[in-house]
Amino acid sequence: MTSPPDPELLFDLETLVAEAVARFGTAGRVRVEGDRIHLQGHGANTTAPIGPLLEQWDELSPELKQRRATALARQLVERRRASSPPPAPARAFRLPSALAPLLILTAGGAAVYMAYLKLTPPRDAESPSATPGGSASAAPVLGSEAYEQERQAREARVCALTRERVLRGTTVGPMDVEGWVVELVLLRAADADLTFDPALAAFIERRPGQLSGRFVWASAPLLAEREGPGTTVEIADAREGEALRGVRLTFSGRYVISYFTETERSEYVRAAAALSDRLDARYGALFARCARSTTHELGAWFRGPGPAGAAASLVHFIAGQAAPAQVLPEQGGASAGLPELTARALPLDRARVARTIGAHGGMIAGKGGDSATTLTFPFKDGNRAGRASFDLARALGVARSL
Q1: Residue 61 — left, alpha, or beta (φ > 0 → left; ψ -120 to 50 → alpha)?
Q2: From CA 189, how far away is CA 281, in angstroms rounded?
Q3: 133, 284, 366, 400 — which has fewest CB within 10 A?
């Protein structure tokens, strides 16, 4: 008798298939029973065989898991659509023979009148289709608000499912981008508005008169080549307390694909480091989050003055912006200043910070002292920065008891 499958494995498969089902525009709950997977609710219940997939699951790469889950979702959705009742056929209508000549004459007269309208110029060139009341009639756009609400709800649902997998340490890939944005926050002394700093021009080509544009930095060609609907960088003022001010860049649309692609995320890190040097930023953070949430996830790069400042940046932007917050508000959360948290972290030397983040695959780089220091985390396992930030918060004595 075979042992029952690992609940974590089942949850992983069901989550991936549920996300793919949502991307196909279908609602329902996904459940695995035995050697079959089921789509239930919000329509006809459908099922598909999964074969030996559960036995092979742990050996599959993240990309293959995505493909297999998408293939299963496609089967479930197609079977649901095929099982939906077809529309009722229109009843045949036979025109009485006595009316046929009249119909022919009417159609002929209509054709002559339409030709007359086409050849005769309008009497009022300003309003060629004016109504008797003097105003032009326009066909209303129906359903756009409802469609937008459904799109936002779907994005939030898919992003929440992906976030659950991130918190469990799963590696998520480019098929998981729906509902996500990537943010780069750079801060220095609160002496100027950086949203119009000339240094940004080498990285972002603005739309005329707008605080948004497209990423154009030549040293990150794969990221710069992304294009498509909603693929934009929003530029916003950023403040942390009274002492720090800077800029927040929010990458949306197809730009997010690069952050979720292992071979391309390094371009984000390279751009973050270069732009922080150009702006002389004292603190910085690069992370992804659900677009309709303030929770920060998937941290990749953090900057601060010396090891203590870099550690403070990681704790503040990840543990301090978690849900629920992992840092006491008065000791480093959203209401506390980064300089105060840096001062608290001064007893942590470079070796201590390196050991703490190294346990989660993180790396530290910098010249020592109070010079710019960065912490970076690898692509695999989306929650590495989250776990490292909590460990540092505990080392600082500011961690909230969970």
Answers
A1: beta
A2: 8
A3: 133
State how far the Cα of 103 lies from the Cα of 108, in Å rounded to an integer: 9
**First-to-last C-alpha distance (Å) of the chain:** 40
How far apart CA 239 and CA 360 sit, in angstroms, is 29
What does the CA dihedral 322, 327, 333, 339 come to, rounded to 10 degrees? -130
User: Which whole-number Å values give the CA distances from 308 to 35, 186, 286, 339, in the listed order?
Assistant: 52, 17, 18, 10
Omega before residue 5 within 30° of 0, cis = no
Cβ(215)–Cβ(234) below 8 Å: no
Q: How many CB atoms lie within 10 A of CB 313?
A: 30
* Domain residue ranges in the chain: 7-83, 177-396
Query: What pLDDT digit, counting tens, does each position of 72-117 carry?
Result: 988 998 898 887 665 544 444 454 555 555 545 555 555 545 555 4
**Structure tokens belonging to residue 358:** 């190294």
The identity of residue 151, as a single letter, is R
Structure-token match 């002929």, residue found: 108
With beta carbons less than 8 A apart as the criterion, state whether 175 and 74 touch. Answer: no
On whether the pTM is more than 0.85, the answer is no
Question: Would you report the helix, strand and coil content of the chain in percent, each value rounded to 5?
Answer: 45, 20, 35
pLDDT band at 134 (very low <50, low <70, confident <90, very high): very low
